[in-house]
Amino acid sequence: MDKIDLPPVGADDLPLSLLEMGCSGRFELITHPLPQNRPLPPHKTLPHGLPPTCLDLKTEVEKRFLRDPAWLPVHDVDDAFHKFLKISTRNKEVDSLLHCSLSPLHSGLSVVRDPTTGMLLDFTEVLLEDTGLSAKNSLSLQRQPGPPSESLRGSNTNYPFQPAGMEELTLEQIKKKSELEEDIDFEKDLLTVPPGLKAGMDFSDKEAISTKSEVNLLSLLSTFDDVIDALPEEKEGVSQKEETVKLPRTNSLEDLGIKDSGNSPSQPSANTVSLTEQKKKLQQEDKGDNKKWAVPVDISSPCDDFYKRIPNPAFKYPFELDVFQKQAILRLEAHDSVFVAAHTSAGKTVVAEYAIALSQKHMTRTIYTSPIKALSNQKFRDFKNTFGDVGLLTGDVQLSPEASCLIMTTEILRSMLYNGSEVIRDLEWVIFDEVHYINDAERGVVWEEVLIMLPEHVSIILLSATVPNAVEFSEWIGRIKKRPIYVISTVRRPVPLEHYLYTGNSTKTQKELFLLLDSTGNFLTKGYYTAVDTKKERTSKHAQSFGTKNVSQHNTTASQDRAVWQTLLNYLSQRQQTPVVAFTFSRTRCDENARSLTSLDLTSSTEKSEIYSFLQKSLTRLRGGDRQLPQILLMRDLLKRGIGVHHSGILPILKEIIEMLFSRGLVKVLFATETFAMGVNMPARTVVFDSIRKHDGTGFRNLLPGEYIQMAGRAGRRGLDATGTVIILCKAGVHDMGDLHAMMLGKPTVLQSQFRLTYTMILNLLRVEALRVTDMMRRSFSENHRDTQAHEKRISELRNTLSSLPPLDTEAQLSDLLSYYHTITELRITAETLQRAVLESVNGLKALSVGRVVIVNNCQHRNALGVILQVSNDAVNRTFTALIICEKGNEEVSGDDLSNKVLHPIYSTTLFIPEGPCSHTVQKLKLQDISAITAKSLKVIPERIIDNYNKRQQPRFRLDPPGQAISTATQELLRLAEANPNGIMTLDPVNDLHLKGVDVVEGVMRQRVLQDSLKDFHCIHSPTFTEQFARVQERMSVQEELDKLLFLVSDQSLTLLPEYHQRIKVLEALQYVDSTGAVQLKGRVACQISSHELLLTELLFENTLSPLAPEESAALLSCLIFTQNTQIDPHITNTLQEGINQVLNVAQRIGELQRDCGIAQTAEDFVAQFKFGLTEVVYCWARGMPFAEIATLTDVQEGTIVRCIQRLDEVLKEVRQAARIVGDSVLGSKMERASLAIRRDIVFTASLYTH
User: What is the pLDDT of residue 355?
Assistant: First the structure.
């Protein structure tokens, strides 16, 4: 084989090369053949020069998002590109920027008719007023309605309607400038750069380029000179004529605007015209000072002309009405507001029904509010059966909201008022049922807010149990609403009550029933003593002589209880005294008592079958598993025997079943707690009190008369029973007679204001400039004592007095007269406080013993020395009998000079030395008469001096010379005075009497400084000083009284004002409002939330709820609703535990902030409101666990769990609204899901009353 010659290898022939990889020092061998005649590629991957600092983000983003087909909307790149082109090459329409919504029409058409025939003659165009008003800028009813979606609940950006009695500004007030306003000079010093912009407008005069006009206008006008001159005279003539037409004086701008509505076709409806007439009438009545707004209506005489005055009533009743009902209906027909305080079962509902019928006749609307949801449901059923057109709005139910009568809880009405709901326009009546609920510490404030916020055209009907201060309460409402309120109260119950004590506990003693209070109201002590005796007989001889082992008055064992109930109920059913309501003040006691009565059967077989079929029908709405709940099975067994239990721990559906069976008379005995007596209209034949003590959240106490009457009032069914029976059990011993008497015959609880400031209220009022929180506080029932009218009258009197006083001469020497007056006044006040401190201290009183020399200053004596003879024992008004030296002839106190207030114009310590012969007097001195205690004491014989002096007061001994003891003492005093004419050594409060209080020490120092400063005044040397000083004093005393009254009338004297400022501080610190009081985004969110608004809003803004699953967030929020303490620790997930910790941290932070801002509640108390006992229960429920299993997770009763979850749903709705405002749609939909998760099965079974 031939050898092939290869050319010698050149430098660029070898296909090997090294490539440096990055900066790491790695190399790679490259073996591909190199291109011919080309320079070698760089043997590095790095570019030459410095390495780049980072990749270009722009190209990265383009590569990743714009060039990656998988990322584009649809993988079809072309399609996406076409879409892109379409967007990028759209036609620009500049005109669209100029488009704006249509402005409101400024005029309308109106018809001109022939006045005699009513024929149509013509149309004229009339200008409309108030076209720019909307719900976002005006409180007026003339504003345009908002969108239909907001018509029912309103929106939290709406203004409310103008509340009645909140005065619109008068013309004078509008003209008056506030401190912030300033006179703007429209020529000079104008601001040119708007805030936030760098440059502004240039207003400097620039020469305009003028073109020579062809025609000179002035030359044209000069030909008309004569015409122009003639015009003003005519005008003047006209204006003089016009001036004779006087405008009516009015307090509001709107009244002025009505002046031409008489003939203008844009006339308001007849209704509003009559309103303005009413207003005028009222204003005329107002002229009478101190008008009484509450008008008690006399119901003692029968109302004979009722049918004459109301020939065709809006609602006809099948029975003859009582006098009080007729009087109320007469008032309603006149469209007046009424307060009906009537006994239980007297028939207050008649008044409410008539109002609803009237509003249906007038085609207006009525709102009926009640404090309790169960009551709302019952009323819904009752009114629905009567009227048909009735709607219901509670937290979780909304049925036919367009109806003419709406039943709702007070909280919902409050939010409708704040949010300017359109329903308020058509509203004629608001009926407040169970007004005595205003005493509720937690929710009472809501009633007051609603009453204050109601507009003028709404009339108010208040229904309440008997309260002692109905007139005072109505006076308050009348005053804030500026309209009379007619107070109608019943004198007695339609069915009288008899009150008994029961001591029986076995078949032998079952008849031991003793009448204590008969139906006419006489308290029979005889009954009481026989009860005590029979109870005593039964205790063993040993116990009678040595006292019982069981000392406790209130505790009895379960078996003893059972015996008492068994005996009593057998006895009552024999006497046909059923149905019975047994009030027991503990839920467990209710359950135990009902369970223990195993052998008791009170129903006949027909009743049993009726109860069975009703139960079956009612429970069909529950799912299969829920029908087998232990509580339902237990209750089923009890109900068949005619026994029921009613308290907050019972499931709502069971409660309703029991109520319905009870009102049909199938439940013979109902063990209930106090809530059953609250308004639920279910009278019984007999009421039994298991005990007369209850626990009110803080401790045990006896029932209040109001509570007792409310519960006892359930006895006696009108038309069925002649009298109602009330029985008080004496299980351990007979109750104390004083307690019983106080409870049965005491005055019921007075209505008291529970008004307090809430953050929601403050924020809701702050977002509307026209309403101020101080106005709300001034109108609250708690400030009812402020008699502003009388104060205003006195203020004007004082102002007149001031202006009529002679002017002060403060020239030359008298220039420092006023400051002298102030110094001397301050010195007097300091001396008085020091004196009080000394005389109230132990050492001071020790020093003031018999024989002590004191300096006396009062209207009769000036710096006179006296010696103490006697000290009274009365610690409150302690008096000192003293011998005082005085001028001859000045022994008696002159009658007219008793005013202690007259200031001695010149301050001096010079002691009094009589000019003529020295005389003396013995007087009783008050503490304030002793201006100083000297260091000296005299030996005196007080009895002799006093006896001698008193003897010489009698006419026949008047001229006798004074006794030895007196003359010695007088001489001693005179000698002391002459020895120290410029003042005597007095005891110093700090050094001698050892008073070490800060205020005493400061007072002594201030006193010294003031005394020294008096030397420097010139006015004392003026010849007219005394006269001028008297003038200053007179003027100043008037001025002081005036200032005091002005303070009382001003907002500064409101009791809640300091707290208001503290709460504003808290809101500013959390940025809910800014420093000017404008509501920020956080504040807007908090307005949506009805309770615990700060905590919830903070949680929202801190994103606490975002990481949680829907069921976890629901569980976490349950702490805002649940209020009981639980014994069982819940087992919860870690995320939930973190959430709980976060909630507690936020709460702690808010609590501390409130504390720092001065609010009284401690941070610990604030945090302790939030209880996490139900978190596990709610978590499991939201995840779908059946109710039977949930109930075993906790010791909380079933009814409470259901109620809590129902209210939780309302909170979730509020959070959803809030999340929408913030724009957090993810959280919003999460809350929606949480809400759906808990709205199932037995918890959200519809009420039996509403279907």
Answer: 93
